[in-house]
Design goal:
The chain is an alpha+beta fold. The chain is built from 14 helices and 20 strands. Strands 3-5-4-9-6 form a 5-stranded mixed sheet. Strands 2-10-7-8 form a 4-stranded antiparallel sheet. A 4-stranded antiparallel sheet has the order 13-19-16-17. It is elongated. 32% of the residues are buried.
Length: 424
């Protein structure tokens, strides 16, 4: 950005742009004032570390615990509202969250390990400030400053003096809009994929767990949502054990094979575009693949029973299995979801999944024609999920490219708008 434009940017601190009502920068209550015994089934949600994230992920509005209205009133100093920015004080330093202005809650309570910033919106745009304090540069600074003191925590005094470069408010709004529009689309894709996954799981459960089409035919009804051609493939009755007549009872190893991943030491990883999977998901990117997707990754050590569908070539390391299907891959994926693998830990010291124990599980298996029709219905959903995920990765990469350039004033707003428009 040209020097004359940069001259309009000012070095500020978070304390200087907080509201001056005594509640602009506050931390959560002392732990003794908010013991677990205060938690209730409903009421005012409590913001904890699990609701925040390292990097850009605004707010995780789930896994709340709650307190009563009375407890919230007693701890009113630590209440937060939409557009407040929350920071971790103790725990995973650098975590942040921007409280949303949509959703079922308009009031929240900080946990004892969090702090919040309420901005004077005459001076600062909350979304702009959120992007600034959540940027890799800010996260590194928070962590490094903490390490320099030898104490893995931060505090209100530190946050009050934390530096931030602020352009004029209209430019803040414009930058927040550019970055926010990318994140909004990523969020739309995430929610759409959650809906598509739920639809696929519901169909699997109806056909292969609850035997809905068979039960409907046994009661003389047309199975809902099925064409006459597909409905005709299902049996007309259940046997004495409640299973569809004619369906075979098989083992998991009749349906799929679990193959061990391969060790790939960190020193041997070469930067590339191939995702490397551990039991917690993607841990790195490499330049070579072991499996040419699509396939399924199953957590073996660590996060036991975790499941990931990957359409791209990928590299599964030795803490996971990958699936070689003997039936349609879609059936294998939703079958594995239904088996409760996460509860099958067999190792006391290090959580582990024993392949033989999985193989011994029984599967009520439909005819090949039914499995093929299930695959034909689910495949378009999987393709849309893949498209959405790929688009989100592209948008996130673009956001990560633009963010430091916009926050430093290096890139003009107008140029960034053109780049974003060209990516759509």
């Amino acid at each position: 950005m040209h020097g004359d434009e940069m001259s309009e940017w000012n070095q500020m601190t978070l304390g200087s742009i907080a509201t001056k009502d005594g509640y602009g920068l506050v931390d959560g209550p002392f732990g003794s004032n908010l013991p677990a015994s205060c938690y209730t089934e409903e009421g005012i949600p409590v913001i904890r570390g699990s609701n925040l994230s390292l990097g850009i992920s605004r707010f995780r509005a789930d896994e709340f615990v709650f307190v009563s209205q009375e407890t919230a009133k007693r701890l009113a100093r630590s209440l937060c509202r939409p557009f407040d920015i929350v920071f971790t004080k103790k725990g995973t330093l650098g975590q942040t969250g921007l409280i949303p202005n949509s959703g079922p809650y308009s009031l929240y309570l900080l946990s004892s390990n969090q702090m919040k910033l309420t901005l004077d919106t005459r001076l600062a745009d909350p979304l702009f400030v959120y992007y600034s304090v959540s940027s890799p540069e800010s996260v590194r600074k928070i962590i490094q400053d903490s390490e320099a003191t030898g104490v893995p925590k931060t505090n209100i005094a530190y946050l009050r003096d934390f530096p931030i470069m602020l352009p004029p408010l209209p430019i803040q709004h414009a930058i927040a809009h550019i970055l926010g529009s990318l994140d909004d689309k990523i969020d739309v894709n995430r929610r759409m994929n959650e809906t598509l996954e739920a639809m696929a799981r519901a169909l699997f459960k109806d056909w292969f767990v609850e035997f809905g089409p068979v039960r409907a035919k046994a009661e003389g009804r047309q199975p809902p949502g099925l064409s006459a051609e597909i409905a005709a493939l299902f049996p007309d009755a259940l046997d004495a054990e409640g299973k569809p007549v004619g369906w075979e009872i098989k083992r998991v190893d009749d349906v799929l094979e679990l193959v061990y991943g391969k060790a790939l030491r960190a020193v041997n990883r070469v930067p590339g575009e191939i995702p490397v999977y551990g039991s917690g998901g993607i841990i790195e990117y490499h330049n070579e693949f072991l499996v040419n997707g699509p396939s399924i990754i199953v957590g073996r050590k660590g996060t036991v029973g975790s499941l990931y569908w990957e359409d791209r070539p990928f590299f599964p390391i030795d803490t996971v299995f990958y699936v070689k299907p003997k039936t349609p891959l879609t059936f294998c994926f939703y079958l594995l979801q239904s088996l409760g693998l996460e509860g099958m830990n067999t190792d006391a010291a290090v959580p582990g999944l024993n392949r033989s124990n999985v193989y011994r599980l029984s599967v009520t298996c439909a005819s090949d024609d039914i499995l093929l029709n299930f695959d034909n219905i689910i495949q378009p959903l999987r393709k849309q999920i893949f498209f959405n995920a790929r688009e989100s990765r592209t948008l996130a990469a673009l956001r990560d490219l633009l963010l430091p350039k916009l926050l430093s004033g290096e890139l003009r707003v107008r140029v960034a708008e053109e780049i974003v428009e060209g990516a759509r």
